[in-house]
Design goal:
Layout lengths: L13 E3 L4 E8 L2 E8 L5 H9 L8 E7 L1 E6 L4 E5 L3 E4 L3 E6 L4 E8 L9 E2 L1
Antiparallel strand pairs: 1-2, 1-10, 2-3, 3-9, 4-7, 4-9, 5-6, 5-8
Length: 123
């Protein structure tokens, strides 16, 4: 593997587009970087759960929000509002949704072993 490399999101390794979701994934060695655009009205339990199943999102998320706001509520009842300029970590076992009329744009970083479930991919 090269010591220095880059990849454009316009040449993403995977593109995932469940309802109100556009996610472009680039693979950089053992790290996946995902550019997310979630439309107003997006909610994990309504847009992603029908694709991946389960009672709540079982993936952990590490990311940063460039635009918009997201409310995240964990299964234990704790909740947090993350907005533009915030870095975040959401532990497995949560639901989340876009707050307001502005799309959420952000980036997430994950070890390439992260399993996003059976999302349809193209690209």
């Amino acid at each position: 593997m090269p010591k220095l490399f880059k990849k454009s999101f316009s040449d993403a390794d995977e593109v995932k587009s469940p309802e109100k979701t556009h996610a472009e994934v680039v693979k950089l060695g053992n790290v996946n970087v995902t550019r997310l655009e979630l439309q107003p009205g997006w909610k994990w339990s309504e847009c992603i759960k029908p694709v991946v199943g389960g009672d709540s999102c079982q993936a952990g998320h590490v990311g940063v929000i460039l635009q918009g706001k997201m409310m995240c509520v964990h299964d234990d009842g704790t909740e947090i509002l993350a907005e533009a300029g915030d870095a975040y970590y959401f532990a497995p076992g949560h639901d989340g949704w876009v707050v307001g009329d502005e799309p959420l744009i952000g980036y997430e970083f994950a070890d390439s072993g992260k399993d996003f479930g059976p999302w349809k991919t193209s690209g």
